[in-house]
Amino acid sequence: MSLHLYDTSTRTVREFVPVEPGRVSMYLCGATVQAPPHIGHIRSGVNFDVLRRWLLRQGYDVTFCRNVTDLDDKIIRVAAEEGVPWFVVSERNQRAFTWAYDQLGCLPPTVEPRAMGHVPEMVELMRRLIDKGHAYASGGDVYFDVVSYADRYGKLSNQKLENMRAAADTDTDSLKRDPRDFALWKGAKPGEPTWPTPWGKGRPGWHLECSAMATKYLGGTFDIHGGGVDLIFPHHENEIAQSQAAGDGFARYWLHNGMLKLGGEKMSKSLGNSLLIPDMLRKVRAVELRYYLVAAHYRSAIDYSDEALQEAAAGYRRIEGFVTRAAEVIHDVDAAAPLPQAFVDAMDDDLNVSQALAVIHEVVREGNVALAQGNKEQVARLLAETQNMLDVLGLDPRSEQWRSTGDSGLREVVDALVAVALEQRQAARARKDYAAADAIRDQLAAAGIVVEDTPQGPRWELAQ
Questions:
Q1: How would you label 46-71 residue by residue, b for 16+ Cβ within 10 Å and e otherwise?
Q2: How far apart are CA 190 and CA 80, in angstroms?
């Protein structure tokens, strides 16, 4: 079975065939940086990081473009409320997003363009649309004429033009030919940043930005465009309209991840129900939060609860426990070992990570049995399979990512302190002072540290 992905534009699971054999071009709608990220924002980054890792594992050369919307109405409003320039708000929150992506183990994008660095490309795209009769200038604004594209507008979101309401993206609807037309360019207003164009000073509309950046870095036709389901309409619908009306093929596959909700509601700053990344990392380790975010199918909605988060963390620790114990016995892991076919089939089936994790847990169960039996050959094979599968998901506890984060740094400190206690316990047992040895073990248990005596010596892990 080859890789198959659910394409929103056809509403079917399609075989993935890239434009160019051996190469994949992928664009992800990244952050609009008016506020720091919550886990709903970062879920998209983590989900598409898994897709990228799977494509890399399959031998593709992947160009991954994840944009930053560093100016829009919300950013301008926040800046005005704080009494600072718009770029202060953008830069502060952009750094918060970068930190969060790094903490959750997302590979850095090949390119991460900022919208306001690409105004010339946006002006050129507007010029092409006006020349083709799909856009018009009016009172300093520039609008896309949806009626001129009526035969195709609404296909992504499965809507008909006659049933659509006004775009509601400006307060200047009187300048539009049709209230459903959307703004490509917004004319200058007092206190707002502006750039010059042949149609007057102003700033870009949100939809225009992504079309200009995607085609600049990935070409007129590219493989995959991704984002959250909340972007299907109007954002992605409008991207398709303006790009294809200008003559570009644009994205061949459209992938959308489900929303992360809290109490059944979409997570958002406006509702006051955001779970910011620093707050989450006080509850669980970063690798455990990543496990939680990838465990559900990327297209499904997640209704967040602390209980579900802790269950996911415990599930990850069971995997980590086997890897840690097996690595004490097996020091050289075969990174080229083949993946279990059941894992490959799950990942090729529209990134069915939940099924892939079920395969990992089954291999871990087999590995624990092999450890108990002292079958080193079996342990070596199962450890290699486990680590290679975890690597695809960005979850290998022995990878450089998790060895070099604050998580593992804290683990190293705790490990050193526990090692001192275990040495004292061993010394007490050697002099047959079993009461003292038991007291040390009990004190560690009270601190949440479980000690296990093995043929290789005592080892510890956090209680689950």
A1: bbbbbbbbbbeebebebbbbbbbbbb
A2: 12
Question: What's the rounded Cα separation, in Å, for the pair 342 and 140?
Answer: 58
pLDDT tens digits, residue range 245-287?
999 999 999 999 999 998 888 777 666 677 999 999 999 999 9
Q: Is 210 annotated as a binding residue?
A: yes
| 65 labelled ligand-binding | no
- Residue 262 to residues 19, 46, 57, 301: CA-CA distances in angstroms? 39, 19, 34, 10
Cα 257 from Cα 341, distance rounded (Å): 25
- Please tell me the pTM assigned to this model: 0.88
CB of 182 closer than 8 Å to CB of 143 = yes
Give the strands of the sheet with 265-266, arranged side by side.
265-266, 260-262, 302-304
Instruction: Determine the Cα–Cα distance for residues 383 and 376; give it in Å rounded to an integer.
Output: 10
Q: E strand or H helix at 429, and its extent? A: helix 406-430
Question: Which one, of 429, 424, 416, lies nearest residue 460 by Cα?
Answer: 416
Residue 269 labelled as part of a binding site: yes
Distance (Å, whole) CA 251 – CA 218: 10
Q: Mind listing the pLDDT tens digit for each residue in 57-82? A: 999 999 999 999 999 999 999 999 99
Per-residue CA distances from 329 to 242, 321, 325, 382 (Å): 59, 13, 7, 12
For residue 145, how many C-alpha atoms fall within 13 Å in the half-sphere facing its CB? 15
pLDDT tens readout for residues 353-364: 999 999 999 999
Let me know: does 177 contact 149? Beta carbons within 8 Å: no
Q: Which of 120, 125, 126, 121 is nearest to 138 (CA)?
A: 126
Q: What is the mean pLDDT of the chain?
A: 93
**Can you tell me the distance from the alpha carbon of 329 to that of 374, in angstroms, rounded to the nearest whole number?**
9
For 342, the token pair is: 């059941």
